[in-house]
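Record MtN3 and saliva related transmembrane protein, 85 aa.
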Amino acid sequence: METIIGVAAGILTSISMLPQLIKVIKEKDVENLSPYMIAILLTGVSLWVVYGVMLLEWPIILSNAFSVLVNATLLTCYVLFRESR
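=>
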């Protein structure tokens, strides 16, 4: 049961920023995004990946690695779309 809860939590937290990323890519509007929040979140999920690697816990590694990818993409979009205005 613990594994099911852990995997479900990992999936939900990993996909939580996808709607924001999709909206930013579609609209190319980053005016209301906080780059600091994204950077802090990116740092946090990166540390979770390191922690997962230290424990060899694949659910932690994979879910947070996906979050790293989504948040790094969002931060990249922030930089690209902000400069284009």
